[in-house]
Amino acid sequence: MVILDIFCIFATESGLSKTENFLKHGNKKVFQNGKLRPITKIQNKAYYHIMEIKNFTITKRDGSKERFSLDKIMNAIIKAFQSVDKPSDLATISKILSHLNIHDDITVEDIQNQVEEALMREGHYSVAKSFILYRQEHTEDRETLQKMQFLSEYMESVNAATGSKYDANANVEHKNIATLIGELPKSNFIRLNRRLLTDRIKKMYGKQLADEYIDKLTHHFIYKNDETSLANYCASITMYPWLIGGTASIGGNSTAPTNLKSFCGGFANMVFMVSSMLSGACATPEFLMYMNYFLGLEYGKDYWERADEVVDLSLKHRTIDKVITDCFEQIVYTLNQPTGARNYQAVFWNVAYYDKYYFESIFGEFYFPNGEKPDWPGLSWLQKRFMKWFNKERTKTLLTFPVETMALLTDGNGECLDKEWGDFTAEMYSEGHSFFTYMSDNADSLSSCCRLRNEITDNGFSYTLGAGGVSTGSKSVLTINLNRCIQYAVNHGQDYLEYLSEVIDLCHKVQLAYNENLKELQQHGMLPLFDAGYINIGRQYLTIGINGLVEAAEFMGLKITPNDDYLHFVQGILGLIEKYNRQYRTKDVMFNCEMIPAENVGVKHAKWDREDGYFVPRDCYNSYFYVVEDDSMTIIDKFKLHGAPYIEHLTGGSALHMNLEEHLSKEQYKQLLKVAAKEGCNYFTFNIPNTVCNDCGHIDKRYLKECPHCHSKNIDYMTRIIGYLKRVSNFSQARQEEAARRYYAHA
After folding, report:
1. CA atoms within 13 A on the CB side of 643
2. Radius of gyration of the chain measured on its C-alpha atoms
3. What local confidence, expressed as pLDDT, does residue 469 receive?
4. Got the DSSP string for 199-261?
5. How far apart are CA 217 and CA 194, in angstroms?
6. What integer pLDDT is reported at residue 170 of this predicted model?
7. How many Å separate Cα 441 from the centre of its chain?
8. What percent of the chain has pLDDT over 90?
9. Is 196 within 8 Å of 204 (Cβ atoms)?
């Protein structure tokens, strides 16, 4: 006789379930296996435990809460016995139940895991197997239904970014079958990545830490970036392995470039291949230096002085300059096309420009395969030509990539050492070009490639967006939700820095576990970019990301302005993270700290925190040290808030986006470059929305209310969502709302 048959002999007591009635009457006798038997002490003890937990809630798979019900557990166990034709009596079921550790807010998954373990501990292996298979079938049914629901919602969404459930990305411009195919397996990748990581954490630190990681992750105290991909994050690569050997070392079949034509075609193919093995950006800081080399081989090192010379014997009679701009066009338009290996998004491609001092510091000892050293006069001209061409090309079509960074060395007093390139930077900004600028006043840190590497090791200098340096980047980013962590600590009477210490320590251990998984992949030949030398694994960082800093400060009652209290708050948190970065650093592993762009997670953190009752002042957490919608903040204040005292410990970078309503003059930009240098704001851009007419297609560098060409008011804007330029209409719905709240300062 199974348990459900026994229930019928008891009168139902008001307010109790069948299970509670059954277990309460311990002094009664029941028919069991044909005989009248008393209910055991185990069953009597179980009753009182059930009465204790009857008001507990459980967390269902969709995150909703439900009152705990032992009936459902018992019914599932009984069905498992029945499925394999095994008898189940009162004592058997009671023993199984006695192994369960039910607590308030327990998850359905945890309960079912405990039932599996209890069945096996009691020796019911065939029943446990049936129970496991039953769970798997239902899991597959649920997943299929969920994917069908997602498919329907994705098709109805306004764009690809809004439709994406896990990592909304404005770089995916079009919603189609290719983007849908890319979205569907993401939940599986997340589960796989979490299992791989938690298994490694268990081996290195034990089950308790693995459980703590999942708890902090699922309750949104921390966020693992790029869980939908198995690839490591981003890299600034050296192209030298391709220059001497083509793509064979990373699985391709192209040979080394031998002329300008093979360089252009081969470069695009190489970037596609490298990017397919990264989940983030691919920076090629040597791009124009190598192109200058091949131009010199083809037309002589003085080609740039003869740019108007006709060198094409075809009917086109192209000049050297036209040959060069045709090469620019081939590469840039090719790399702005969506690719299958990136879920139908363009490669996130970065390039760098250098002033003479910065360039000579990094590449002063560089030699090409033929023994030549880089030619600065030709490269200087080529860098300017590319910037001029790219700026003009952006008035013809919407081009997002490359993301450009200008690297300038300063004298410590706010002046650029290379006056020519300081002036040219201001000139390009005044002409409406949109690019980043990196400024440094430490010549020693750039004295040679070797010295740069030493400084990276000592000071943690690296920008995961690809600014400066060669063959560096980030392996993995694990982000701390500072707003939730600090509010949780304060609300529970804890010192928030002490609580953050626990979270930061956990993050470092998790990142080390990730690093071990990465090393195992490399040992099995799965990471050819490292083996071939495109990326130096010793200069790849494990990054501790931060998000919600401004919101946490607001919760603490601080004014988000340049003031001592806010500075102390920022330095306390970032200094604590740097302390752990140094503590966990070894000769093989480096850590840095980055204020992450948070295109997607800034929205998620705000949503999750608001749902759980935390103070949330806006619908998208800031990625800056200032409040993006604050119209009282001056331009100078923003430079101060991203100046040296605030970014001192932010070794992985933060990018100031100076939102302006209109372009400034060259002289005004020169003054702002001085302000940035004096304040120690080392990484920034000026962001003025470009106007795009949806009717005639005209693109204007200005922030206008109607099209100046056809006077249509059906217009869109191209602006930086965070880091890269895209149409606002390509932003996710939440990010479009954030963009509408931004304050663009008057000149």
Report:
1. 22
2. 31
3. 54
4. HHHHHHH-HHHHHHHHHHHHTTSEEETTTT-SS--EEE---HHHHHHTTGGGT-------SHH
5. 10
6. 64
7. 30
8. 64
9. no
The residue to which tokens 């069991």 are assigned? 32
Contact 190, 228 (CB under 8 A): yes
pLDDT category of residue 188 using cuts at 50, 70 and 90:
confident
- Helix runs in 284-394, H state only: 287-299, 320-335, 356-363, 376-393
Reported as a pLDDT band with limits 50, 70 and 90, residue 12 is very low
292, 295, 301, 306 alpha-carbon torsion, rounded to 10°: -110
pLDDT at 449 over 80: no
What digits encode the pLDDT tens for the residues 161-179?
A: 787 877 777 677 778 888 8
Length of the chain: 747
- Residues with Cβ within 8 Å of 392's Cβ and at least 6 positions away in sequence, in order, are none
Q: Which amino acid is at 27?
A: N
Q: Reduce the DSSP state of residue 380 to 3 states and report it.
A: helix
717 with 729: CB under 8 angstroms? Answer: no
CA distance 296 to 78: 80
Question: 626 pLDDT exceeds 70?
Answer: yes
> Rounded to the nearest 5°, which phi and psi values hold at 235?
-155, 145
Contact 104, 65 (CB under 8 A): no
Helices 108-121, 125-156: axis angle to 10 degrees equals 160
- Residue 408 forms beta bridges with which residues? 439
- The type of residue at 585 is R
CA distances from residue 500 to 79, 484, 514, 615, 620 in whole angstroms, order as listed: 46, 11, 21, 18, 22
Q: How many CB atoms lie within 10 A of CB 157?
A: 16
SS3 328: helix
- Mean pLDDT, rounded, for 507-535: 96
**Other residues' Cβ atoms within 10 Å of the Cβ of residue 47:** 20
Q: Which two tokens stand for residue 69?
A: 């019900």
The per-residue pLDDT for 54 is 59
User: Which two structure tokens, joined as six digits, stand for 45?
Assistant: 């003890």
DSSP state of 653: B
**299-311: buried (b, 16+ CB within 10 Å) or exposed (e) per residue?**
beeebbeeeeeee
> In angstroms, how far is CA 541 from the centroid of its own chain?
14
Two tokens, residue 260: 């300008």
Burial code (b: 16+ CB inside 10 Å, e: under 16) for 49-72 equals ebeeebeeebbeeeeeeeebebee
The pair phi, psi for residue 263, each rounded to 5°, is: -65, -50
**Cα separation, 432 vs 664, whole angstroms:** 9
Give how far the C-alpha of residue 552 lies from the chain's centroid of Cα atoms, to the nearest Å. Answer: 21
State the Cα–Cα distance between residues 349 and 346, nearest whole angstrom. Answer: 8
Sheet (strand 699-700) strand order: 699-700, 690-693, 715-720, 725-727
In Å, what is the CA distance from 291 to each residue of 13, 253, 295? 86, 21, 6
CA-CA distance, 233 to 278, in Å (whole number)? 6
Contact indicator for 702, 131 with CB cutoff of 8 Å: no
Find out whether 588 and 516 touch, Cβ atoms under 8 Å.
no
- Cis bond before residue 38 (omega within 30° of 0): no
Query: Is 435:319 a contact under the CB 8 Å cutoff?
Result: no
Give the whole-angstrom CA distance, residue 289 versus residue 292.
Answer: 5
**How many C-beta atoms lie closer than 10 Å to residue 668's C-beta?**
14
Q: Look at the block and give the residue holding tokens 């410590």.
A: 412
Q: What share of the chain is helix, strand, coil (3-state, %, to 5)?
A: 50, 15, 35
Which of residues 10 and 21 earns the better pLDDT score?
21
Q: How many CA atoms lie within 13 A of 678 on its CB side?
A: 11
Rounded to the nearest 10 degrees, how much is the dihedral formed by the CA atoms of 475, 338, 276, 193?
Answer: 60
Q: Rounded to whole angstroms, how far apart are CA atoms 472 and 20?
A: 63
